[in-house]
C-alpha cells in the first residue's frame, strides 16, 4: 500500500498553526490554538491505525478488511476530554474578561517585584515600604475594600482599563506605567 | 482478594464524588462526612493493597473481563501500592484541614459544594494514574486529575487565581497533548499501548525511534513533575490557591509525574539512553530551584521553589538506574509527599495567625503561638535533611547511591545535592528567624490600618478613612500620601517615614504603653480541626522517620522489582506467553 501524503501535511499544518496561536497573549487565540492542536493529535492517532478499511463491525466486514478500531476508541476519548476542557477554558476566559475587562494574560506582579529588586537586600524589603503599585499581586485585595458589590468593581475596572481594546496583543499596562 | 480491592481506589472516590455532588448545597454536613469517610475507606484499601502486594507480589485486574492486551488493565505492584498509601494519607489529612477551614470561615471563601466532589475526583485521577497498566489509561488518569486541579486552582475565580490558573492550564494542556501524540506514535510503531506488552516490543525498534518515543514521553512527564527547564509554571501558579488546595497539589501532582518517569525509565526504556540528560536536568533542578527559594520573601513561594528543587533528588535517583538509586528515589518520593503537604498546611495556619505569608510582614509568631512554631519547625528541619529525620535518611540513601556509582557526573550531583540541602536549610531557617523568632515589635505588621488604606490603591479608593490607629499615629508622622494623583516617590517616602516611625518608636511617650497594647494583633484562636489535622500530618512525617526501616525495605524491594521487570510483565499476562 502506498502511504498517503495528505494526512501528514494536514497534521503538520494544524500543529504549526496551533503552536502559533498558543503562543499568543490573547486567551481566545490560545483556546483556538488548543483546539487545532487537539485535532492535529487526533488525526495523528487516526493515522497511527494503519491503512484504511471497512468499519470494524462484526457481520458487516470480515476481520481482515476492517480498519483498526483501537485508535478510533482512543480518538473518541480524546475528543470528549478536549471538549470538556474547551468548555472550561471558555468559562475561564469569560471570567477573566469580567474581572479585568481584557482577556490577555497579565504580567505577574510578584515576578516584576523580584526582578526589580537587584539593588536591595532581599531581606530588607517590606511590602509596606513599597508604593502600592509595586506590591505583590496577592499582598492584599487588589481591587477594592470589602463590601463593594460586583457592579462597583466592574465600573472601577472599566475605568482603569479604559481605552484598551480587549484583544490587545501588546503587553498589558501595569499600574506602574499608567499615570 | 487483592483483585477485588484493586479497582476500589479509583471507584470509591468517583462514586463518592457523585454522591457528594448530589447531597451538596442542602446538606453540607452530610457531604463533609461522606467525603471524609470515602477517603478513609480509600486509605484502608490502599494499606491492605500494600500489605498484600508486599507479601504476595503484584496483581493485575482486567477491567470488564476483556482479554489482556486488548482491555484496560489495572496493575498494583509494590511501587503503585506504596504511592497509593501515601497519596490517600495526605489526601485525608488535607480534606480534614479543609473541612476545618470551611467551618471556621463560614464557607464563604470556597464554594464548599464544589470543593468536596472535585477533591474526590482529583484523588480518583491520582489513583488511576498509579494503577494504570496501559499508556492510554495513564493519560486518562492524568486528565482526570488535571481537570479536577483546574477547578480547584481557580476556586472562587478571583483575579490572581484566574491569572495563575491560566498559566497552569495552558502548560498542562501542552504536556497532555505531547503525551497523547507520543501515545499515537508508540501505537504506530508497536501496535499496542499495554505497558507490559510494550516492555517487550519497544526493545525491537530501531534505536532512533526508541529515542524519539522516550524523549517525547519524558518531556511530557517532566513538565508535570516540574523538572528544571520545564518547571517555571509551578512557583507561578501554586501559591495563589487556597491553602489546602496548594498543599494537596504540592504533595501529589508533581509526584504523579515522577511516578510516570520512573515507569518510563524502568519498564518501557530500560536501556538508559537518556540517563546523562536526566542527571544534568536533576542538577539544574536542584540548584536553580533552591536559589529561587533563597530569593523569595513569601512563605508559600519559598515552599513552591523548594518543591521544585527537591524534585531534582528524585530525578537523580532515577537517573542513577541502580537498585540503590531507585530505592532512594522511591523513599524520597514518599517522604517528600508527606513533608511538602504538611509544610503548605502550616503555611495556611501561619497566614491565618499572622494575616500574611510575607516573611517581612510576620514576626513574633513563636511567642504568639508556640504550638504553630513547633508545627513549622519539625517538618522544616525534616525538609532540610537534619538527622535523624526521614529527609536525612532519604538524602543519605541517594547520596550513597551516587557515590557508589563511581562516575564523575554522579559525584558532581552528590555535591550539588549537599549544597541544595544546605541552601534549603538557609531558606527555611530565614523564615523561622524572621516570622517566628524575631520579636513582634520589629515587625511592621501593626500598622495594618494604614497599609490597608494604601493597599486599596490610589485610584480605587476615595481616600483613607481615618481609623483610630491612624489618628493616634498621626502625631508622629506626616499624613500618608495615598490620595489620588500622588507620584510613586511620594508614596515611597511616606511609606519609609511610616516604617522608621514604627521601627524607632517615635510615638509620644505617654502613649507608649497603650500603643504597645494596641499593636498586639487581636489573635484569633486557630480553629482546632485545622491545627489538629496539621498536627497529625506532622506526626505522620515524624512517623516516617520511626518507620524508616520497614519503609526503606519496601522501597528497596519495589526498586528490585522495577529493575527486574519480569514480575510486572508476567503478572499482567498471568504467566502466559507474551504475544
Describe the protein.
The complex is a heterodimer of chains A (179) and B (579). Chain A contains five helices and no strands. Chain A starts with 5 loop residues before the first helix and ends in a 19-residue tail after the last helix. Helix content of chain A is 50%, strand content 0%. Chain B contains 25 helices and two strands. Chain B has 579 residues and is mainly alpha-helical. Chain B has a domain of 212 residues. A two-stranded antiparallel sheet of chain B has the order 1-2. Chains A and B meet through helix 2, helix 3 and helix 4 of A and helix 6, helix 7, helix 19 and helix 21 of B.
Q: Count of DSSP E strands of chain B? A: 2
User: Strand count, sense and closure of the main sheet of chain B?
Assistant: 2 strands, antiparallel
Q: Can you give the helix content of chain B as a percent range?
A: over 70%
Give the distance, in angstroms, between the N- and C-terminal Cα atoms of chain B.
27 Å
> How much helical structure, as a percent, in the residues of chain A?
40-55%
Distance between the termini of chain A: 68 Å
Provide the number of structural domains of chain A: 2
Largest sheet of chain A: none
Q: SSE order of chain A in H/E notation?
A: HHHHH
Rg estimate of chain B, integer Å: 25 Å
Low-pLDDT residue intervals, each spanning 5 or more residues of chain A: 138-148, 167-179
Shape of chain B: globular
User: What is the CATH architecture term of the largest domain in chain A?
Assistant: Orthogonal Bundle
Oligomer: heterodimer
The value of Rg of chain A in angstroms is 25 Å
Mean pLDDT of chain B: 80
Shape of chain A: elongated
Strand arrangement, major sheet of chain B: 1-2
The overall strand count of chain A is 0
Low-confidence stretches of chain B: 445-486, 499-522
Organism (chain A): Blastococcus haudaquaticus
Family (chain A): Belongs to the CPA3 antiporters (TC 2.A.63) subunit C family.
Pfam family, one (chain A): Oxidored_q2
Region (Disordered) (chain A): 113-179
Amino acid at each position: 500500500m502506498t502511504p498517503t501524503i495528505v494526512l501528514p501535511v494536514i497534521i503538520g499544518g494544524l500543529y504549526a498553526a496551533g503552536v502559533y496561536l498558543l503562543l499568543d497573549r490573547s486567551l481566545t487565540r490560545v483556546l483556538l490554538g488548543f483546539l487545532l492542536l487537539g485535532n492535529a493529535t487526533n488525526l495523528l492517532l487516526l493515522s497511527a491505525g494503519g491503512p484504511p478499511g471497512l468499519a470494524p463491525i462484526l457481520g458487516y466486514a470480515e476481520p481482515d478488511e476492517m480498519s483498526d478500531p483501537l485508535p478510533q476508541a482512543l480518538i473518541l476519548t480524546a475528543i470528549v476530554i478536549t471538549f470538556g476542557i474547551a468548555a472550561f477554558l471558555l468559562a475561564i476566559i469569560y471570567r477573566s474578561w469580567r474581572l479585568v475587562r481584557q482577556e490577555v494574560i497579565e504580567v505577574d506582579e510578584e515576578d516584576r517585584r523580584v526582578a526589580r529588586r537587584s539593588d536591595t537586600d532581599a531581606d530588607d524589603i517590606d511590602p509596606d515600604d513599597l508604593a502600592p503599585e509595586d506590591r505583590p499581586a496577592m499582598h492584599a485585595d487588589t481591587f477594592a475594600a470589602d463590601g463593594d458589590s460586583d457592579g462597583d468593581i466592574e465600573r472601577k475596572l472599566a475605568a482603569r482599563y479604559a481605552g484598551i481594546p480587549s484583544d490587545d496583543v501588546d503587553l498589558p499596562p501595569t499600574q506602574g506605567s499608567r499615570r | 482478594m487483592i483483585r477485588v480491592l484493586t479497582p476500589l481506589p479509583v471507584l470509591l472516590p468517583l462514586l463518592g464524588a457523585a454522591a457528594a455532588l448530589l447531597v451538596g448545597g442542602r446538606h453540607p454536613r452530610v457531604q463533609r462526612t461522606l467525603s471524609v469517610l470515602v477517603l478513609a475507606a480509600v486509605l484502608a484499601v490502599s494499606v491492605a493493597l500494600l500489605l498484600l502486594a508486599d507479601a504476595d507480589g503484584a496483581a493485575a485486574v482486567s477491567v470488564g473481563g476483556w482479554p489482556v492486551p486488548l482491555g484496560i488493565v489495572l496493575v498494583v505492584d509494590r511501587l503503585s501500592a506504596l504511592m497509593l498509601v501515601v497519596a490517600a494519607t495526605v489526601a485525608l489529612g488535607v480534606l480534614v484541614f479543609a473541612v476545618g477551614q470551611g467551618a471556621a470561615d463560614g464557607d464563604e471563601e470556597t464554594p464548599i459544594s464544589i470543593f468536596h466532589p472535585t477533591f474526590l475526583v482529583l484523588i480518583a485521577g491520582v489513583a488511576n494514574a498509579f494503577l494504570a497498566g496501559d499508556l492510554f489509561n495513564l493519560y486518562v488518569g492524568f486528565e482526570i486529575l488535571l481537570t479536577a486541579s483546574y477547578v480547584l486552582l481557580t476556586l472562587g475565580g478571583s483575579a490572581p487565581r484566574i491569572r495563575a490558573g491560566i498559566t497552569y492550564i495552558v502548560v498542562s494542556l501542552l504536556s497532555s497533548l505531547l503525551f497523547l501524540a507520543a501515545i499515537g506514535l508508540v501505537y504506530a510503531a508497536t501496535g499496542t499501548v499495554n505497558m507490559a506488552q510494550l516492555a517487550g516490543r519497544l526493545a525491537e525498534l530501531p534505536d532512533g525511534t526508541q529515542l524519539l518515543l522516550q524523549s517525547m514521553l519524558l518531556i511530557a512527564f517532566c513538565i508535570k513533575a516540574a523538572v528544571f527547564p520545564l518547571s517555571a509554571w509551578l512557583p507561578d501558579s501554586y501559591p495563589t490557591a487556597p491553602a489546602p488546595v496548594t498543599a494537596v497539589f504540592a504533595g501529589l501532582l508533581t509526584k504523579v509525574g515522577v511516578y510516570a518517569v520512573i515507569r518510563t525509565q524502568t519498564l518501557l526504556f530500560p536501556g538508559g539512553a537518556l540517563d546523562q540528560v536526566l542527571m544534568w536536568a536533576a542538577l539544574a533542578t536542584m540548584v536553580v530551584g533552591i536559589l529561587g527559594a533563597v530569593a523569595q520573601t513569601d512563605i508559600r513561594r519559598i515552599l513552591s521553589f523548594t518543591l521544585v528543587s527537591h524534585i531534582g533528588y528524585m530525578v537523580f535517583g532515577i537517573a542513577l538506574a541502580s537498585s540503590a538509586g531507585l530505592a532512594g528515589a522511591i523513599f524520597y518520593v514518599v517522604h517528600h509527599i508527606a513533608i511538602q503537604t504538611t509544610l503548605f498546611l502550616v503555611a495556611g495556619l501561619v497566614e491565618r495567625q499572622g494575616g500574611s505569608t510575607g516573611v517581612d510582614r510576620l514576626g513574633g509568631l513563636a511567642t504568639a503561638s508556640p504550638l504553630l512554631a513547633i508545627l513549622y519547625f519539625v517538618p522544616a528541619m525534616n525538609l532540610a535533611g537534619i538527622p535523624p529525620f526521614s529527609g536525612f535518611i532519604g538524602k543519605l540513601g541517594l547520596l550513597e547511591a551516587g557515590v557508589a556509582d563511581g562516575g564523575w557526573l554522579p559525584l558532581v550531583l552528590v555535591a550539588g545535592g549537599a549544597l541544595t540541602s544546605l541552601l534549603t536549610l538557609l531558606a527555611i531557617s530565614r523564615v523561622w528567624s524572621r516570622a517566628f523568632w524575631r520579636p513582634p515589635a520589629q515587625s511592621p505588621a501593626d500598622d495594618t490600618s494604614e497599609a490597608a488604606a494604601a493597599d486599596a490603591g490610589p485610584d480605587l479608593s476615595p481616600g483613607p478613612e481615618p481609623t483610630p490607629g491612624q489618628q493616634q499615629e498621626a502625631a508622629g508622622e506626616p499624613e500618608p500620601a495615598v490620595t489620588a494623583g500622588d507620584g510613586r516617590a511620594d508614596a515611597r517616602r511616606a511609606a519609609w517615614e511610616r516604617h522608621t516611625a514604627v521601627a524607632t518608636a517615635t510615638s509620644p511617650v505617654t502613649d507608649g504603653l497603650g500603643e504597645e497594647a494596641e499593636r498586639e494583633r487581636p489573635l484569633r484562636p486557630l480553629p482546632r480541626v485545622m491545627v489538629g489535622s496539621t498536627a497529625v500530618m506532622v506526626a505522620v512525617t515524624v512517623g516516617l522517620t520511626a518507620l524508616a526501616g520497614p519503609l526503606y525495605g519496601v522501597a528497596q524491594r519495589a526498586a528490585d522489582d522495577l529493575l527486574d521487570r519480569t514480575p510486572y510483565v508476567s503478572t499482567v499476562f498471568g504467566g502466559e506467553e507474551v504475544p
